[in-house]
Design goal:
Aspartate Aminotransferase, domain 1, 2 domains, seven-stranded mixed β-sheet, four-stranded mixed β-sheet, 15 helices, 14% strand, binds pyridoxal-5'-phosphate
Length: 444
């Protein structure tokens, strides 16, 4: 008898014991017990297709068998679990595999730092290093950016309600409009104008930090020319380019790094989420070797380079990144998903966005949350994104079988149709116009 044979079905203990801060359990109110590939199962034996994939932490699906075998073999052999940053066989295997499968084929001779295990730890380390190396305090982040919840990362994050949680002023970050934020206008012109003007009030930054596709921010895609212009401008003003590839790296858009098609060579790259491949907490900061100006222990942490995650990460790189098969699969599945999103968008008058296997359907906030709920009723897990939660965000495992992807898209389409066909109980709260949004922010 295992825990799973006697799984509770009642959420009362969660409501009674867990803090009000809990969130996804409210959107998906059931007790999950098992997970295999693109499927989650609950305690009542119901099967769900997972189009959320741990917010991008499960690019290879749940309990991927090769990764599970490597992990079980390591644990069964009493491999070291915790070792701070002492050398272990698992750590060395990860570093060498990462070099062989990722860095060398892309001619990216980065040094690798393994900070604390979550994405925000990687972001904190990256901006700390950029400030140290350049001696400049300001980091430039973009509208709708999401970089994490600890204070340094939160200062880089755009969302007002998340920022308000800090309880202290969030300093040393300048904000600029992301690609497409000003409609047709090229936001790099705006950036160059402000940073080239000694009287603009915007300090020359230590670094620019960006996501090439803003995932939490609403699936906002930066074009390759925009990314190239930004990289060239950063170089001109001696600012470092930090790409936060935490959610859209590890193959989410096709190639291992999301910035490869634009030909970028960022100074610093943040990775986390799907790096361990198994949903185990694990992060890395990659930096040009000249930037590796840390002194020993200057940035540390108890859980750096968690050994079981090193094992599954190396196994994932061997399994999925020894050739271009996964990238080709992602591109094929992305075309399938994009076609279905375009059809849904056209039918209901909703813009669609995306690259690779991250896609957004912009329905407005009320409808997006109703669609997520209606999808859950149909056995599909899918979340919303965007400043007002106005985007239904598709984020399936990259390895999802084409048939399961189509089945999930059928369920999503049924949910979308049901919500659009339903006469709203109240007028749907759609995205207000600019003046109304300003009034809403200041409570006027
Ligand atoms: C782009 C990006 N950066 C940073 C983070 C923070 O990662 P974590 O939640 O693991 O701290 C996230 C999380 O969603 C993310 O999407």
């Amino acid at each position: 008898m295992t825990l799973l044979d006697h799984a509770p079905t009642d959420l009362a203990p969660v409501r009674r014991l867990e803090s009000e801060v809990r969130s996804y359990v409210r959107s998906f109110p059931t007790v999950f017990t098992k997970a295999v590939g693109p499927h989650l199962f609950d305690a009542r034996g119901r099967r769900y297709i997972d189009f959320f994939a741990g917010a991008g932490a499960l690019n290879y699906g749940h309990n991927e068998p090769h990764l599970k075998a490597a992990l079980l073999e390591y644990l069964t052999a009493d491999g070291v679990t915790h070792s701070l940053d002492m050398a272990t066989a698992a750590r060395i295997r990860f570093l060498e595999t990462f070099e062989r499968r990722v860095l060398l084929p892309r001619d990216l001779p980065y040094k690798v730092m393994l900070p604390g295990p979550t994405g925000t730890n990687a972001v904190e380390a990256a901006v700390k290093l950029a400030r140290k190396v350049t001696g400049r305090p300001t980091v430039l982040a973009f509208t709708n950016a999401f970089h994490g919840m600890t204070l340094g990362s939160l200062a880089l994050t755009g969302n007002a309600s998340k920022r308000a949680g800090a309880g202290v002023p969030l300093h040393h970050v300048a904000r600029m409009p992301f690609a497409g934020y000003l409609g047709e206008g090229d936001t790099i012109d705006h950036l160059e104008r402000l940073l080239g003007d000694p009287s603009s009030g915007v300090d020359v930054p230590a670094a620019f930090i960006l996501e090439t596709v803003q995932a939490e921010g609403g699936v906002n895609v930066a074009s390759d020319p925009w990314l190239k212009r930004l990289a060239a401008f950063a170089r001109r003003i001696g600012a470092l380019l930090i790409v936060d590839d935490i959610q859209v790296g590890c193959g989410r858009t096709g190639p291992f790094f999301s910035f490869e098609p634009a030909g970028l060579r960022p100074d610093i790259v943040c990775l986390s989420k799907s790096l361990s491949g198994y949903g185990l907490p694990f992060s890395a900061v990659l930096m040009r070797s000249e930037l590796d100006q840390w002194s020993p222990g200057e940035h540390n942490g108890t859980f750096r380079g968690f050994n079981p995650a090193c094992v599954t990460a190396a196994a994932a790189l061997d399994r999925f990144w020894s050739d271009g098969a996964l990238t080709a699969d992602v591109q094929r599945r992305a075309a399938l998903a994009a076609g279905r999103f375009e059809a849904m968008g056209a039918r209901h008058g909703c813009p669609v966005r995306g690259r690779g296997l991250i896609r957004g359907l912009v329905t407005g906030p009320a409808r997006a949350s109703a669609i997520s709920r209606a999808a859950f009723e149909r056995g599909l897990i899918i979340e919303t994104a965007g400043p007002e939660g106005e985007v239904v965000k598709l984020l399936p495992p990259l390895t999802i079988d084409d048939g399961v992807l189509a089945e999930g898209l059928d369920r999503l389409e049924a949910a979308v149709d049901a919500v659009f066909d339903r006469p709203p109980a109240e007028a749907p709260r759609e995205m207000p116009e600019v003046t109304a949004r300003i009034a809403a922010r200041v409570g006027a």
